[in-house]
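Worked problem 6 (solution included).
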Amino acid sequence: MIYLDNAATTLQKPLQVARAVAEALRFCANPGRGGHAAAARAEQTLYRTRSLAARYFGLEPEQVCFTANATEGLNVALRSLIRPGDRVVISGLEHNAVTRTLAALGARTVPVTAPLFDGAAWTEAFAAALTPETRAAVCLQVSNVFGAVLPVEELGKLCRARNIPLVLDVSQSAGLLPVRPAAWGAAFTAMPGHKGLLGPMGTGLLLCRQRPEPLRFGGTGSRSLEQSMPPELPDRLEAGTPNVPGLAGLGAGLAWLLERDPEELRRTEGERLAAAVRGLRALGLPLWTGPGQTGVLSFRLPGWDCEEAAAAYGRAGVALRAGLHCAPLAHRSAGTLPEGTLRLSVSPFTTAADIRGFLAVTRRLLQK
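Solution. The predicted structure is:
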């Protein structure tokens, strides 16, 4: 199979990831719930992953909280900041993990729009939208639909100058682009473990530079006499038994990334994406691309419904995604409703042969 659905999850991972998961299943018990060797090994495993994440993102280990996915982290962040009626400025590219949560909280959501690949225009639009009554700003670093990179560093400066908390969604950029919550002044930064960080599904990180409110309540292995959640991080957010095997795998993914040159990884992924852009342009297909694009490319196949085209690609051995990609706001901003787009997305394990194979299948589908 030619796998080009990495914006959903990376299927191809370093061998160390699977090995770490298997070892945790065999040797790790419940961390913080016993004094025996298996419990101690689990504690050590989680601390290693937490420390690797802290090193990778430039924070302290206690600021790294484990979640099940980016959606859980965004729920924690937004529920910690937002009350009914609050004005919240968001990018017009946000995922349903943000928009549905804000709707459930009764927020007054103000989407900001600008041309997809024009960073200066996005900065200007955010600057105009961040009024004194704004309670928080929310922005993704890379669009999961179009691969457009937003100027989150500039947005951080704008928010700091106005004393507005910033929530970042780095689901499509963590593991590929620099993510620096402290330098950018982000209150919370959420991400999954199963995409660019190369970990298993069911893992995620929430990087906290502000006190969060718990989403879950229960045992933490600490302060057990008290009937309120511990004030200290990470215990405050980590009630219940953690996903030790998954987090062991995430640690292995982080270790793999830390051992490599990030510029080389970005260069490789950029070359693969550029080859796909050139090939699709040569075929005359409509596609959404521009300066700074990274990792993700949306396009359409004339004469085909997007869902039917994705199914045809699948039968030909190419894994893509079609539709709205859980981000209808992004499609509304880009004018691609109601059908959405076909989306390909690359990873460090995408090869030049994968792109050639994808383009060959595309040519055959066009002939039909």
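Discussion: The chain has two domains: 15-258, 261-367.
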